[in-house]
Specification:
Layout: H1 3-38, E1 50-58, E2 67-74, E3 77-81, E4 88-95, E5 98-107, E6 115-125, E7 128-137, E8 145-154
Antiparallel strand pairs: 1-2, 1-8, 2-3, 3-4, 4-5, 5-6, 6-7, 7-8
């Protein structure tokens, strides 16, 4: 066999092996991604049952006052315990690792005499509930929506 032909066979074999290794690596990556999605954590309301001390702070604006309240989380729903208010039952759903909470209308703690509806989304990070709340105030003013960062820890 000629040296050129031999060299071509060696190169072709090397390229074939390289292609097979690359294909195997791509298959592994696809399998790993599928395993990650299939193993993605899901949360149930039973996972977070108990009383939580919550703190919410506006993301923007001059008012950075912290609102402090409690949540009584049960497997069948949540009750919001706001300062100087009657308990507020909230609608709670889960999707994957997220908890969505809708409450209201109720009188705002931040804006006296103004009714508000809230939509919150939380995730459990370690021993903390973290997320955001969007408050929709029943007003015709330009600032009828407020977005807050929220964090909660289990009450002692």
């Amino acid at each position: 066999m000629h040296k050129t032909a031999t060299l071509c066979l060696i190169l072709a074999g090397g390229l074939l092996m390289l292609g097979c290794e690359r294909e195997a690596a791509e298959e592994t990556t696809v399998e790993q991604a599928a395993d990650t999605v299939a193993g993605a954590s899901t949360i149930s309301l039973a996972d977070i049952a108990g009383t939580w001390d919550m703190r919410s702070v506006p993301e923007t604006g001059a008012d950075t006052t912290t609102t402090v309240y409690q949540v009584q989380a049960r497997a069948d729903g949540w009750t919001l315990l706001l300062p100087d208010r009657e308990p507020i039952e909230a609608d709670v759903t889960t999707s994957g690792d997220s908890i969505m909470v809708d409450a209201g209308p109720f009188e705002s703690v931040r804006r006296a005499g103004v009714m508000v509806r809230t939509h919150s989304t939380f995730r459990l990070e370690g021993e903390r509930l973290v997320g955001t709340t969007v408050a929709h105030y029943e007003t015709s003013e330009a600032d009828s929506v407020l977005r807050l960062q929220v964090e909660g820890t289990r009450a002692p």
